[in-house]
Amino acid sequence: MPDAAALPAPARALIAAVGRTPLVELPFVAEVAPGTRLFAKLESVNPGGSIKDRPVARMLVEAWRAGIFAGGRRLLDSSSGNAGISYAMLGAALGVGVTIVVPGNASRERLDRMRAHGAELIVTDPIEGYDFALREARRLAEAGPDRYWHCDQYSNCHNWLAHFDGTAEEIVTQLSELGLGPPDALVAGIGTGGTLTGTGRRLRQANPHTHIAAVIPETFPGIEGLKPYGSPGDIVPELLDATLIDETLAVTSDQAAAMCARLARLGLYVGPSSGAFVHAALEVASQRRYPVIVTFLNDTGERYVSTGMWQQIATLRHT
C-alpha cells in the first residue's frame, strides 16, 4: 500500500484497515481429496466488506498523490457493486465526489450503501449486462474529461499490483507460518482480472508450478461480481493476464448458492462469488494433484439478502 500519511484522517484510518485478512482452512475438502488442504482468504473483514477495498485503496491513493482530484474533479467508474462501495466509502473519506455506473441487477444492499456514502449512481438496464455499464462509464469519461477522472479498474495497473504486493504476499507469509510452502493451486474468478493477475503472477514467482484455475459464471442469471468470459462480444479486461490460466471451471448460480449455504454452517456468511470459488476449488481438489489450494471468500452474505438467495437456500433445505 502506498504511503497514506498526507491523506485526511478518516481515509488514513480506513486504508490502514485494508488487508492482512485471515486465511481460513476449509475442512470439508477431505471428502473429495483426503490429505489436501484448502484455504480461503476471508475478505469480508476489510472496512468496505470485500476484497475490492484492496485495489480501490491503492488506485485512489495513487490518484490523490498525483493531484488527480484537484479542482473538484469526480471519480468515475463502473462496478457491479463491491468496488462501487469501496469507491464511495473512500471517496467520502477523501472528500472526493464519486459517480458509479451500476448494472441494475446489483443487490439493493450494495446500492443503498453506495448512496449512503454520497455516491451518484447511474443504474443501467440489467438485461444489457455487465459490459454495457463498462461501456457507459467509458462514454461518460470521453464526454466529460474535465468533470471526471475515469479510474477504470479494468485497465488500471494499480489494481493488479495491489494483489501482487499485498494479497499474494499475505498468502505466502500465512502459509509459511503454518509450515507450508506457496500453494500448489490458486482458484479465482474474473471480474476485472486484477485478483487473478496480481495474485497469480506473485504466486508463480514463489512457485512456478502453481496451477491457476479461473471460475467462469453462467451468462444468465450470472453471479454478481464475476464476469462472463469467453463468448463472442465479451469484453476482455485489459489487465487480465490470460496466459496465467491453466484451467477454466464453469459454475452455476445454484451451485454457488448451495456452497454459500454450506459455508454458512461453518460460520462463514459469504456472497455467491465466494460460493462459486469454493465449489470450483473442490473440483480442483478432486483431481488429487494439488496438496495445498488457496481461494477467496470475497465479500459478506449480508449484501445479498434482498436478492432472495438465502430464502431460496432455506426452501431447498426443506424440500
UniProtKB/TrEMBL annotation:
Annotated InterPro entries: Cys_Synth/Cystath_Beta-Synth, TrpB-like_PALP, TrpB-like_PALP_sf
Cofactor dependency: pyridoxal 5'-phosphate
Record bears the keyword Transmembrane: yes
Organism superkingdom: Bacteria
Segments crossing the lipid bilayer: 85-106
Pfam families the record matches: PALP
Position of the signal peptide: none
Domain Tryptophan synthase beta chain-like PALP: residue ranges: 17-292
Keywords: Membrane, Pyridoxal phosphate, Transmembrane, Transmembrane helix
Presence of the UniProt keyword Transmembrane in the record: yes
Protein name, as recorded: PLP-dependent cysteine synthase family protein
Species assigned in the record: Crenobacter cavernae
